[in-house]
């Protein structure tokens, strides 16, 4: 990306008293870490305490980022999608310990009859890859995508190990939602999550909202000191370079991987990879998981505890390094550093991040048009998380 492109990096928005360090860190992201256009929102106990945006709507443009500018958030979508299964469980419509095949009989092929619903959420399903990758039109067709994962043989015995299901997570979850409710996950999220909360968040972008979404592109920037790296560079380089590795194959389940700026990609409902949101949409969603927001709370306290209880930990068969997962959410750790040990959420490849921390009442959302070579611990998001931690310090 041409660093000479002129963008307005004046920081707009407000912070509550005591959260001034977040504004300072947000400004430094533009000055030293290569951000071109971004927004960050933080709620505490259901009240917005940080609402900032700056830069350009498009990574290579000059039109200013506005309060309602949205971006593709890649795998941060997974945390929103996970709430669908958790809510269905909370409502008594879905048993997390039931076999997936109970709802989806065709899925039982190749010894998957004992694969449980919770294995989809905790990345223990053994289905991170497709032997026959899908094109974007195939991936966006619910019947074709569901048939592909149903026909896939596990690469490890389900439940015995874990590995990040980068793309297959979405098709597994979506078909479960369809079998239980008769609606796709994107439609379910729109009516049962986004509408009650007034979220600027979509899985399957409506054409009427397309004008609000900025263009994403690659940016480079120095690694700041003190940032936790997501994985050892040598091992992950080897894994991505090896066409036979689970790492390479997991991220190639859609081949070729779509341009994130392609309207067809944004319009598809891919709950593992292509949600579109504002920073406020992500933060407000997470705030509603841990407490009421304008009178609306999504998850009961017992469901929150279930969601953030450790289900998987240790060396990840796909991401190479040690990861920790609850039910649909990454948990605080070296690969996914959030605010505190009890935090849970999900990053998006390239920079976006959403999470909640029940103990402090913090809910956080960051979106950017500057796509960096990070899967989990993006340095810009981490700088903001550290600033929130500083703001909360006694």
Write up this protein.
The chain has 394 residues and is of the alpha+beta class. It has a single domain, classed as 3-Layer(aba) Sandwich (Beta-lactamase), CATH 3.40.710.10. 33% of the residues lie in helices and 14% in strands. It contains 14 helices and 14 strands. Strands 1-3-2-13-12-11-10 form a seven-stranded antiparallel sheet, with helices on both faces. A hairpin with a 6-residue loop joins strand 8 and strand 9. Helix 6 packs across helix 7.
Keywords:
394 residues, alpha+beta, Beta-lactamase, seven-stranded antiparallel β-sheet, three-stranded antiparallel β-sheet, disordered N terminus, Beta-lactamase/esterase, CubicO group peptidase (Beta-lactamase class C family), Beta-lactam-related
């Amino acid at each position: 990306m041409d660093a000479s492109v002129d963008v307005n990096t004046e920081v707009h928005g407000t912070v509550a008293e005591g959260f001034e360090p977040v504004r300072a860190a947000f400004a430094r992201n533009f000055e030293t870490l290569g951000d071109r256009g971004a927004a960050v929102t933080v709620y505490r106990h259901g009240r917005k305490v940080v609402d900032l945006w700056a830069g350009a709507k498009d990574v290579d443009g000059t039109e200013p980022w506005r309060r309602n500018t949205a971006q593709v958030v890649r795998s941060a979508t997974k945390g929103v999608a996970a709430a669908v299964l958790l809510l269905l469980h909370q409502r008594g419509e879905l048993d997390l310990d039931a076999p997936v095949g109970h709802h989806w009989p065709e899925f039982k092929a190749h010894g998957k009859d004992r694969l449980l619903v919770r294995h989809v959420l905790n990345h223990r399903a053994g289905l991170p890859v497709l032997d026959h990758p899908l094109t974007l039109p195939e991936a966006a067709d619910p019947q074709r995508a569901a048939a592909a994962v149903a026909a896939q043989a596990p690469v490890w015995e389900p439940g015995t190990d874990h590995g990040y299901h980068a793309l297959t997570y979405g098709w597994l979850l979506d078909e479960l939602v369809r079998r239980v409710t008769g609606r796709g996950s994107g439609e379910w999220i729109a009516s049962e999550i986004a509408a009650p909360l007034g979220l600027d968040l979509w899985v399957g972008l409506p054409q009427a909202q397309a004008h609000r979404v900025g263009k994403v592109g690659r940016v480079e920037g120095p690694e700041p000191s003190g940032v936790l790296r997501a994985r050892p560079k040598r091992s992950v380089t080897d894994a991505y370079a090896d066409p036979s590795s689970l790492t390479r194959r997991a991220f190639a389940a859609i081949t070729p991987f779509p341009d994130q700026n392609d309207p067809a990609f944004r319009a598809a409902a891919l709950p593992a990879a292509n949600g579109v949101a504002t920073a406020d949409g992500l933060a407000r969603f997470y705030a509603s998981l841990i407490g009421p927001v304008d009178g609306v709370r999504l998850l009961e306290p017992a469901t929150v505890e279930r969601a953030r209880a450790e289900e998987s930990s240790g060396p990840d068969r796909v991401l190479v390094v040690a990861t920790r997962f609850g039910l649909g959410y990454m948990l605080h750790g070296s690969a996914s550093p959030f605010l505190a040990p009890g935090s849970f959420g999900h990053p998006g490849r390239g920079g976006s991040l959403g999470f909640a921390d029940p103990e402090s009442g913090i809910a956080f959302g960051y979106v950017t048009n500057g796509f960096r070579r990070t899967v989990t611990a993006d340095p810009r998001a981490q700088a903001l998380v550290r600033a929130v931690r500083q703001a909360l310090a006694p």
